[in-house]
Structures are given as C-alpha cells and as structure tokens.
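Aim 2 progress. For TetR/AcrR family transcriptional regulator, the working sequence is reproduced below.
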Amino acid sequence: MTEQRRRRPGRRPGSLDTRGEIITAARGVFAEKGFDKATVRGIAREANVDPALVHHYFDTKEGLFVAAMQFPVEPSVAVPMILAGPREEMGERLIRFILTVASDEDRRAPIIAMIRSAMSNEQAATMVREFLGEAVLQRLAQGLGIDPIRIEAAFGQMIGVVMLRYIVKIEPIASATPDELVALLAPTLQRYVDP
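Predicted structure tokens for this construct:
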C-alpha cells in the first residue's frame, strides 16, 4: 500500500520561502493599489497561497505592510506604548519615540526611504499616507480624543526634524543630542496634543 501524502491547506508544496514570496507579492500589490485598496485575499492570490497562511505569518494587513515595507515599528505595539502614561508628558513621549527609532541606522533606513519615495512618487505617497493615516495617526487621535489634524501637525513637525537631521544634515540640529531636541520640541508637540 502506498501512503498518500496529504497537502497542507494554505500552502503550495515545494516552496521553502513562502513568507518571502508573500512579502514580494505584497510589495507589488501595495505599490499598485495602495494600502487601503490592497486586501489580504488579493495578496494571497498573487502569492498563490491561502489567505489563512498570510494571517498565520503576519496576523493582519497592517502587519504584512510593516514587513513588506520594512517599517521599523509595529503600530499595534507603538501606538499603545505612546498613549501609555500621563497626558502632560505626551509631547515628550512622541519626540523621544521618533528620535529613538530614527537614531538606529537600521530602523531609520526604511523611514528615510519611505519619505524620499513619497516625495517623488505618487503611489508611494498614497501608500504612506493611507498607512500612517489609518494605522498610526487616526489611532493616536482617537486615543487622545483630539481632532486628527492636531496629531498630523505634530507628526509633520517630527518628520521635518528627521529630514533636517538625517537627510539634509543641517547643523546644529544634525549633531544636537536627543535630550536637547526633546527639551526644544516637547513643549510644542504638547500644545498639539492638549485638548
């Protein structure tokens, strides 16, 4: 009697890097459709796998985007961490978080790549806008109970600081210590997030 091999659901046989193939498919789908219009089902179809396998590896569409775009932080972890703590220290937490992520070269590289891409490519700008808007900014605004424009203005200022510090490298902001920047920027960011 020959033993028949059963195919595992959700995965085609023979591939050793299914996760990598899903990421590759996701990059293409996100680039073509943007974050909002891309679906886990569509990405699974493109990778020729069952959608359950995408959920197995990445949990959510957001988690898949983070992996595919090499986003340096997982919003589902970062947003609650930023929101935790006294409201009157929110401005400091925001700027410390951004400076901590940006000071690590490996984590900074994808941020810089996304900023540069968004400035020169409308598809990239759409993806970044949709992802940041939905996964980060809306959640922060809701968690703080403020109008989204306030958190968008705060992030606009922080992205400007990251650009000046790490892309343009304007002095003295490029060589200022994180504590100097926190002392300078936290009060302004606090104004944005106060009700």
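Residues 1-7, 10-14 have pLDDT under 50 and may be disordered. This observation will guide construct design in the next reporting period.
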